[in-house]
Amino acid sequence: MRVISWNIWGGKYMDDILYFLKRANADVIALQEVIQEVDGTGNIAGKIAEELGYEWVYFTTERFPISLLEQQSGREIDWGNAIVSKYKILEKKVHILSEENSRTAVEAVLDIEGKPLSFFSTHLFHTHQKPSKLQELQTRNLLKIVPKERAIVAGDFNALPESGAIKIMEEKLTNADKSDFRPSWSVYPDGCRVCRPEGIIYRLDYIFGTKDVQFDSFAVEQSDGADHLPISVKCSFL
Predict the structure, then answer these.
(1) Alpha-carbon distance 228 to 202, whole Å?
(2) What is the reported pTM?
């Protein structure tokens, strides 16, 4: 099973996103910064799923003016996490990770050859690469709802490899990346208007699994489809 996680930056460059995902041929895709209209129409994950012929699930994390994502004003949008899956989705849930600076994790229980797999897509609060008690709280709350077996957690953790949040995740779950943590952000300087990263210099995106999940061939992929680069890994189960 091939898994991809990608913060798609509101789908600004949708043609590039679809170009990459169609050729990547992943089985399950965790998406972050997915947007839709406030009436539920125009969901970006839904469009991706339609193009791939996959099932999908989405939950809104918060609602805000679209001007926060691009140079527009006036209307609001919904913004959250999604999962797009080649496998049948048996159950879907949303979990609140913190009320302060609202963050969530979306969960899809997938039918993998007749056995359930809990798959999560999440997106932690951005602290501009600084230590954060809030991120640590969000990761602890996330770990409370992850099953002890047959579970994969993927997403934009907005945290460096040496951060408290990632160390907390690694205490309970296996980090799919066993390399030197190649950076995944930011392809574009306006990926953050506060810290304005000077190139792809930070690792913020991760995939984790329970101890019965085996990972192989982890990669930070190449695409101009968003400010984050997509990450991928092959998974098998003990």
Answers:
(1) 10
(2) 0.96
